[in-house]
Structure formats: C-alpha cells, structure tokens
Design brief:
Layout lengths: L23 H14 L2 E2 L3 E2 L6 E6 L5 E7 L3 H9 L5 H4 L10 E6 L3 H5 L2 H22 L23 E4 L3 H7 L2 H22 L4 H26 L11 H5 L21
Antiparallel strand pairs: 1-2, 3-4, 3-5, 5-6
Length: 267
C-alpha cells in the first residue's frame, strides 16, 4: 500500500511555469530580448510592431555576424531566430544563438502603405538589407559575416534610424564570454555545420562559404588566446585573407530563390 504521508515521494506537486524551466542565462537573454523588442518609438509604437524591417546580430566582441530582413514583423522574425530557433540559419547550424550578444533593428514603418506598391516596397526592403549588409562587412574585422544567402545586390540607400540593444547580462558575459568557452562553442558549431553538409550532401555554396568563415573566426579567436597565454600582442585578423579563401562576399553566384523568411522544412 502506497504511503500518503507528507514525506511521501508520491505526493503530487504543482506543475512549474514553463518560463521558470530554462537556465538563468537563457531567462536573462529572453528578458532582455523582450525589453529590446518592446522599445517604444515616439509616434510609432514598439519596434516589434513594424511589419517590414532589417535586423543584425553581433557577437561578444561587437563583431557583426548576421544581417536579415523581414516583412512578417520584426518581433516575429527575431523571436523565430533567437527563441523559437525555427529558421534556416539556426536549423542548419549557420547561426549559433548563444553567440548573439547584441541586436540592431531598422524598422521600416508602414513601408508597403507609404509606397502603395508591394513590389516597390520589396525593392526598398532589399536595398535596405543590402546597405546594412555592406555596413556589416565594412565593420567586420574579417570582411565577412555568416549569411548563407547574400542579400540581393542593390543600389545602397540611406539607412533609417536604427535601435541597438545588448542581450546578455553581466553574469552571462563573464560565463559565456570566457575565450576558452567561446573557442569550444565555436568549434562545436563548426562541427555541427560540417555534419549538416555531410549528411545532406547537396547544400548551397553559401553554406560551404559560411563553414570557411566560421573556421577563420575560430582560428583567429584561438590565436588571440594563444598570444594572451604567451604574453605577446594579439595577432591581426588580416593574417588570414577571407576573400582569398572564399572570393567575394558582395554577391551570390548561385540563385536558389529567396526563402530567407521560410521556416526550415525540418519543422
């Protein structure tokens, strides 16, 4: 006969709230992400409510790592990347969400309504994304970021006002930001990405390009760590030529169609 005393292991307990289940660093990240997306812009509303827009992610060094566009809502798209992890970039192991430390948003408020033409609006969206992409390439110490699909080549435009937010707490930065942890995590990301290429076989040239760029980023991070351990100046990122390894990152030679806003077919 089962015991029903207070100390019984069979005593029912209250089901915890789902939000209480993630680890503390994950909860902190999601809290700061929600705060960023809820940022109020005078006369416009919250940035998450802009249906059309462009976004960029940055790592722990402030290095740009990914640029994207959306016309389904900035909040929806960014959440799919960083919390639901239901996008091609994440599912294919191209983007490691644990490496994202900052977020920048360019909301394009009422773009389709203002232009009165969805084709013209899409052209403006493409141009805005490509301009932000060029800015990220310019700001990158490697002259390359982790986009599998390079945005459609467009005439650069003046970028609208952007909003940039930190997404990690001080405690998380101390833990995840340690170089040995970042090296191990990046090596694991490369291994997973290589496994995707091996298992699927037929993958895009862009995915293979990202694999090279990630390897360069890992090599540089490891070299900086070695230099620190040996007490000598950190090596320059110019020691490895990304362009020499992958060619131009300003346009795509292949045309696989535009599915940047599609959920990966794995889900």
């Amino acid at each position: 006969m089962a015991s029903t005393g207070r100390a019984s292991a069979n005593r029912p307990t209250a089901k915890p709230a789902k939000k209480s289940l993630p680890a503390q660093d994950v909860r902190d990240f999601r809290t700061m992400l929600t705060h960023a997306l809820d940022h109020e812009v005078d006369g416009r509303g919250r940035v998450r409510e802009s249906q059309w827009g462009v976004y960029a992610f940055y790592d722990y060094d402030g290095e740009p790592i990914y640029v994207g566009q959306t016309k389904e809502g900035l909040g929806v798209r960014v959440n799919r990347h960083l919390t639901n992890q239901r996008t091609d970039a994440v599912a294919m192991r191209i983007l490691d969400t644990f490496e994202v430390a900052e977020l920048e948003l360019w909301p394009l408020w009422n773009l389709a309504d203002d232009l009165g033409d969805r084709v013209a609006a899409q052209t403006r969206l493409d141009a805005t994304e490509y301009t932000a992409y060029l800015a990220a390439i310019e700001a990158s110490r490697f002259g390359a970021i982790l986009n599998e699909k390079i945005p459609p080549v467009s005439t650069p435009v003046e970028l609208p006002e952007s909003y940039r937010f930190g997404l990690i707490s001080d405690a998380t930065r101390v833990e995840r930001g340690h170089p040995d942890i970042r090296i191990a995590r990046r090596a694991e990301t490369i291994s997973r990405l290589a496994a995707v290429a091996r298992e699927r076989g037929e993958v895009s040239e862009g995915l293979r390009r990202v694999l090279v760029i990630q390897a360069v980023r890992l090599a540089h991070l490891s070299a900086v760590r070695l230099a620190h351990a040996e007490g000598r100046p950190r090596p320059s990122a110019d020691a490895i030529s990304v362009e020499g390894l992958v060619g131009s990152v300003l346009w795509d030679d292949e045309d696989d169609g535009d599915d940047r806003d599609d959920v990966d077919t794995l889900f």
